Amino acid sequence: MKRTVIAAAFAALGCAGTASADSIPGLKGHDHTGITVPDMKQALDFFVNVVGCEEAMSFGPFSDDKGTFMTDLLGVDSKAVIEQIAQVRCGYGSNIELFKYTAPDQKALKPRNSDIGAFHIALYVDDVAAAKKYLDAKGVPTRMGPLPIKEGPAAGQTVLYFQSPWGLQLEAISYPDGMAYEKNSKTILWSPKDPSK
Q1: Of the four listed, 58, 129, 171, 195, which is most buried by Cβ atoms within 10 Å?
Q2: pTM score, whole prediction
Q3: In the chain, what are the domains?
Q4: What are the start-end ranges of the H helices in 13-144?
């Protein structure tokens, strides 16, 4: 009976491995996540010198004083200026693109994980306890954890949430022996493990 309930939960969550009938033509994967930061120097220092990412490139500024290019391309105020864009690579995952904007209607948002539209960046690590010790030594605010997940489809992972100096939520996550859902799912989430093994 329990397996039936778990299988139904997997199906309801889209974990049963059924492929979607529609997709963006040529979809290959997640390239980057873009984040607007209040201070580019601070953001690069955090991602490079604390998290351990590598800066790949930086460019800008971009603006359009006379037209609607910024609105047409990005959906922002026409007078918005992207002062700088920097892309960082964190290990073997997808990239993080940092934006430093100024705009007449700019808001400073500090959403909690429970707020609609909020997000966090999860970074795979070998050892969440070692990550916590490191982050604590660097003065990075961390939350409860490491927390091992022992039940449900995510069983096998250990997590720890932490925060950037400007309030961005991040997560250290590890699942060296995989997660429980992998036994019944045809679709396996990204993992740093070699898929051929």
Answers
A1: 171
A2: 0.83
A3: 30-106 (3.10.180.10), 109-197 (3.10.180)
A4: 40-44, 69-74, 128-137
